[in-house]
């Protein structure tokens, strides 16, 4: 029996966004199905926040299209907007409300508000709902924004630096609960973050932007197979100070030992060991090590 393909809930088609003479997004085309968790990474100014705002309908494309659920984002109907959860970098809420009053107000707009999820998240994030929003610390304001974004069980969750203001304990709780939400509802989740170790623990797909262009759009496990760190020990004298092989991206050599960063490791390992009479211990690269390679032009 043939299984149906997952619903594409987030998509862009040749998306361009300009601000005056500056091009923030330069022809982006991508598609995200339900159940996928995408790490949106890139340097400051690469276009991550602009992309998320185009998907929300807050920015209109200069050309091309941004769509949620097959509808252009600027034309989303009320019932489609109710399927979206958003955490902004800067969250604006009514400062005179308490956290409790804020959640009680927001829940009136959503038929699917999950009280059990709300209680679980408030407890996990150690959030005091009795404090006025205007008196909350940046971290607690971020926690309140996260609870607000996920308790109506959205089918698309757009998170712009959701953990930037959180302490390590709260970041851990957020990651655990995002994975729980994924198991319960299978939403599409886009997480923009500079905390690459946290991203790596949560996502299954990487979308990397640079100067408004997509430079990587691939599964994380595929990328992890694409690169490796080799710890090399020569069995026959000193290793060369430099390696001419183009797939050796970086090398630190000390006598008979070296640490190499390599591309397509399994394609080259056997020949390398034979050529240099060496043994190789191979380890996958983490996202923090892959990201600088992409920024230097070493993209898959």
Q: What is the topological layout?
A:
Elements: E1 8-19, E2 22-33, E3 37-42, H1 48-56, E4 63-68, E5 71-72, H2 78-81, E6 84-87, H3 99-107, H4 115-124, H5 138-150, E7 156-160, H6 168-185, E8 188-192, H7 196-202, E9 205-210, E10 213-219, H8 220-226, E11 227-234, E12 248-254, E13 257-263, H9 265-276, E14 278-284, H10 287-295
Parallel strand pairs: 3-8, 3-9, 6-7, 7-8
Antiparallel strand pairs: 1-2, 1-4, 4-5, 9-10, 11-13, 11-14, 12-13
Descriptive tags:
single chain; 14 strands; 6-stranded mixed sheet; alpha/beta; 4-stranded antiparallel sheet; 2 domains; 300 residues; 31% strand; Rossmann fold
How would you describe what is shown here?
The chain folds into 2 domains: 8-211, P-loop containing nucleotide triphosphate hydrolases (Rossmann fold), CATH 3.40.50; 226-295. The protein is built from 10 helices and 14 strands. It is elongated, with a radius of gyration of 23 Å. Helices cover 33% and strands 31% of the residues. The strands form 3 sheets. A 6-stranded mixed beta sheet has the order 6-7-8-3-9-10, sandwiched between helices. By secondary structure, the protein is an alpha/beta fold. The mean pLDDT is 92. The protein has helices at residues 48-56, 78-81, 99-107, 115-124, 138-150, 168-185, 196-202, 220-226, 265-276, 287-295; strands at 8-19, 22-33, 37-42, 63-68, 71-72, 84-87, 156-160, 188-192, 205-210, 213-219, 227-234, 248-254, 257-263, 278-284.
